[in-house]
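Researcher: Let's walk through a ligand-bound prediction step by step. First, I give you the protein sequence. Second, the SMILES string for flavin-adenine dinucleotide. Third, you return the three-dimensional complex as structure tokens. Ready?
Model: Ready.
Researcher: Here are steps one and two:
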Amino acid sequence: MEFHHDILIIGSGMGGLVSAVILAKEGFDVCLIEKNRQFGGNLQTFSRDKTIFDTGVHYLGGLEKGQNLYLFFKYLEIINDLPLSKMNENAFDYITFDNDEKKYPHAQEHDNFVKQLSKFFPEEKANLQAYCKKLQEICDDFPLYNLEEKEVYNTDILSLNLKDYLDNLTDNEKLKSVLAGSSLLYGGNEKTPLYVHALSVNSYIQSAWRIVKGGSQITKLLIKKLRKYGGTIHKKTEAIDFNFEGNTLKSVKAKNGKTFYANKFISNIDLKTMINLTQGKIYKKSFQSRVNSLDLTPSSFSLYLVFKPKTFPYLNYNIYHLKEENSVWTASSCDSKKWPEAYMISFGQSKENQQFADSISVMTYMNFESVKEWENTFNTEIDENDRGKSYQKFKEKHIEILLKELEKKFPKIRSCIQSVYASTPLSYRDYIYTTKGNMYGFQKDSDYALKTFISPKTKTSNLFVTGQSVNMHGIMGTTIGAINTCSRILGRKHLISKIKNEVNANEKL
Ligand SMILES: Cc1cc2nc3c(=O)[nH]c(=O)nc-3n(C[C@H](O)[C@H](O)[C@H](O)COP(=O)(O)OP(=O)(O)OC[C@H]3O[C@@H](n4cnc5c(N)ncnc54)[C@H](O)[C@@H]3O)c2cc1C
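Model: Step three, the predicted complex:
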């Protein structure tokens, strides 16, 4: 079967969906194809024991009226229908450590952030103020973060290193670890640029939100808008064959036999996977070598617990736990003797009894090498048993280690558990098609800051790329990335002024 469209988007992650809505709103006939049964990539949710779990989005920032993600979502026409619940204002995240009873809060709003942490570090108030100012200055230097047209970056900022910055800010080792305590958000290590930390953390300090019923609500609303503007979508449609004529992509063939012709194409597929799929035809050899030399962010082992009713309190914040102060820099390397060196807990609220949690998700790092033994198995089905018994045993062993860690902070947690599930780097690889189940695209390195800046344009004249392996990850990062990609088709000035005009017009209504 053949389909003809103006624009074909391959992959329905956040970057693909946002690009699709932007271009459909501009009058293009847009078609989006997705290999999975469920749209959304990392926005996907799954249900176990009548409980909904997120796979890759636990909270969002910048959604207070007038803040940047609010304005982007307003333009995309999803903000009014997105069910949001605001997280604890005095602590949307707590940073905790082994052998320390204290819980160190990250609070919403910059002044409040300083106020709440100053209670634990009274002598560091001026440094905390300087830290908040620096975060905001850095974000202000990213034009699209603030809906500005200019394309020039302050490149000096890109090579500032997070650890160096904190070492210069204060001598207080605990405070440094607390400030970088949520580094699981971006796979932080000693090479992490300060801008990656600032762009990831600052929007949560502005305002922090959970999506009621999970990240798939964003997918649902974006698909509704795409359809409203005449777009079409195909699930279970995996792009496997790319037909080029010279420097132009003519069509894409899917595994289910459908062939899609289009004038322009946007790939939302992980960049390394896309280079493999197109047998290197979309980039010059030198660029391919550059991409292949880039380190990937680590993958994740995630534990999902369903609680017995009314046994575990709902906590309206996340917990980032670190074994030691230094774990903030070392956990992502996944030293098996220390595993898990850091983990993040997010709580699911019970619908019936809102003061109780019906579930928690616990995310920790895991390298692909840990599951290499089963790399030739492939599964996107609910029942993962067909990777074999040894894989089940591997999962059970790691579930037990992680549960023992959780018991250190929540001694009675085991008695609250109704059922237990887990995912590994193989789950992320198979659902998203990232090469090694990497969570956030490429690892950023302050010593080679420009190496991970990837243009949305390819060598192929009518093929563009978007998503977390092109610049920044996260819902904010991939939304801004999609605007950047679409501006190559629509013109940056045109798109930014369109967004600004529409958002302002809507605000007045
Ligand atoms: C564990 C985890 C927790 C996270 N928590 C948060 C959070 O709390 N807040 C936040 O803002 N961000 C979070 N993120 C990051 C965020 O989810 C991602 O950065 C973002 O969703 C990635 O979007 P993307 O556009 O790159 O698309 P992806 O999510 O990478 O999706 C790509 C899509 O392309 C499809 N595809 C691949 N190959 C093909 C093919 N050949 N044919 C058709 N389709 C194909 C895939 O199936 C997939 O649907 C988290 C990520 C992870 C992994």
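Researcher: And what stands out?
Model: The first strand starts at residue 2 and ends at 10. The mean pLDDT is 95.
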